[in-house]
Design goal:
With 365 residues, this protein is of the alpha+beta class. The chain is built from 8 helices and 20 strands. It starts with a strand and ends with a helix.
C-alpha cells in the first residue's frame, strides 16, 4: 500500500542546546548531529523514534534512537504511529535521502513540511518485521566488513611500528632524514586556478576525490576539464606506480596512491609525492606519512601557518626514518600481502552494500 510519510509518523522538535546539558548527568542518553553526547537526568521520548539532522553539517542524516532518550535542537523527531515499526520507519526515511530538500546557503535546513508527502510502500506489521530483520542482517554484515578493513589497516600500522619503531616515544630504530632526500614533490597547479568544466573532458582530481580509507580515487565523480589543460599540465611530470598525493587543505597529509595513467590531472589542493624507488620503498614512505610521527609534524605545521601556505615545501622537509632499503622492501611485501586480503574484503563489502541498496529499492521504491 502506497502511503505518505506523514501517514506513519508525527514530527516533534527539541529546543535543547548542547550548552544546556554540559553540567547535567543522569541515566538517560541524549544525542546530537554526530551521535551520542552524554547522559542527562531527563528524557523527552518514552518510546523508540527516528531522528533526522535538520540543521547544519550532516543534514538529512537519519538515526534510530532508543526509548527514554532525547535529541538536541539541530535534530527533528519523527515519532512512529501504530501502523509502523520504528525500525521500519528508520529504513524508510534513510531510503528517502532527505538531504535533497535542504534550503539555505550559509546554514542548510530541511523542514518536515517539505518532505512529509514523500511516498513509499507500507507493508503489514508482520511483513515489516521480516523486512527489518533482512535489512538488519545486511547492515550487520556491512559493519563487520568495515571493521575487518579497519583491523587490517591497524595490522599494517602495528607492523610498521614493530619493524621501525616510533621517534615520538624514543623507540626509533633508524636515523632520520627529510622526504626531499628520497622523493620529489610536485605542486600540480601552482597558480591555484580552477580550470573551467568541460563535459566529456578529463578528470581533474582534487582532495575530495581521494578516499583515504579505501585508498582509491573517484575518477567518475571528479570534475571534468578540457584536454588542453591536460596537455599543458601533465607535460610537467609523468605519473609512476608508487606516486601518491597528500592533501594541502582539510584533512592535511593523508596519502593516497595515484594510478600511473595519463588521462587525468591533479588540482591545486594536493601535493604529488614521487618516491625515488632506488632510494626508498614507496610503500614505506606512504605509510611513514600515516605514522604518528609524521602526523604530528603536519598538525604542528597546520597550527603554525595558513592552509594556503601549507604545501610543497613542508612536504619536502617532512622528517621520516631511513631504514636500509632491503628492510623497507620486506615491509612492502607484508603490505602487499595484507592488501590482497583487503581487496577481497572490500569486494565482499561492495557486494553486500549493493544487495542492501537493491533491497531498499525493492521494499520502498
Amino acid at each position: 500500500m502506497r502511503v505518505k510519510l506523514e501517514d506513519v509518523c508525527e514530527r516533534s522538535s527539541s529546543n535543547l542546546k548542547q550548552s544546556d546539558i554540559v553540567k547535567i548527568d543522569g541515566d538517560y542518553p541524549i544525542y546530537g548531529a554526530s551521535g551520542y553526547i552524554g547522559n542527562v537526568d531527563f528524557y523527552h521520548q518514552e518510546n523508540p523514534y527516528v531522528a533526522v539532522v535538520k540543521d547544519g553539517a550532516g543534514i538529512g542524516r537519519t538515526t534510530l534512537y532508543p526509548a527514554k532518550s532525547s535529541v538536541i535542537g539541530t535534530m527533528q523527531y519523527l515519532l512512529p504511529k501504530e501502523n509502523v515499526l520504528p525500525e521500519y520507519l528508520y529504513y524508510v526515511v534513510s531510503y528517502m535521502h532527505l538531504e535533497k530538500y535542504f534550503t539555505g546557503a550559509t546554514i542548510p535546513h530541511i523542514y518536515f513540511k517539505d518532505y512529509k508527502d514523500e511516498e513509499f510502500n507500507l507493508d503489514s506489521v508482520d511483513m515489516q518485521k521480516t523486512i527489518v530483520d533482512t535489512l538488519g542482517k545486511c547492515e550487520t554484515a556491512i559493519k563487520a566488513r568495515k571493521q575487518e578493513l579497519k583491523l587490517l589497516d591497524d595490522l599494517i600500522k602495528a607492523r610498521f611500528v614493530e619493524m621501525f619503531g616510533n621517534p615520538l616515544d624514543g623507540t626509533a630504530k633508524y636515523p632520520i632524514h627529510q622526504v626531499g632526500e628520497v622523493a620529489n614533490s610536485v605542486d600540480p597547479q601552482p597558480s591555484h586556478r580552477t580550470p573551467p568544466v568541460e563535459e566529456g573532458g578529463i578528470p581533474y582530481v582534487s582532495i575530495k576525490d581521494c578516499d583515504y580509507k579505501t585508498g582509491k580515487i573517484d575518477f567518475e565523480g571528479a570534475r571534468k576539464v578540457s584536454p588542453k589543460v591536460l596537455e599543458e599540465h601533465m607535460n610537467r611530470y609523468t605519473l609512476h606506480d608508487g606516486d601518491f598525493v597528500v592533501g594541502k587543505i582539510g584533512t592535511i597529509g593523508n596519502p593516497v596512491f595515484v594510478p600511473a595513467r595519463n588521462d587525468y590531472t591533479l588540482s591545486a589542493n594536493v601535493v604529488l609525492v614521487q618516491p625515488n624507488s632506488e632510494l626508498v620503498s614507496p610503500y614505506f614512505l606512504k605509510y611513514s606519512f600515516e605514522s604518528d610521527f609524521v602526523e604530528r609534524q603536519f598538525a604542528e605545521a597546520k597550527n603554525s601557518t595558513s592552509q594556503a601556505a601549507f604545501g610543497i615545501q613542508k612536504v619536502r622537509t617532512v622528517e621520516v626514518m631511513n631504514p636500509d632499503l632491503d628492510v623497507q622492501r620486506e615491509f612492502e611485501i607484508f603490505v602487499k600481502q595484507v592488501n590482497k586480503s583487503k581487496v577481497a574484503v572490500q569486494k565482499a563489502l561492495e557486494q553486500t552494500q549493493t544487495l542492501f541498496d537493491s533491497l531498499m529499492q525493492k521494499y520502498f521504491g
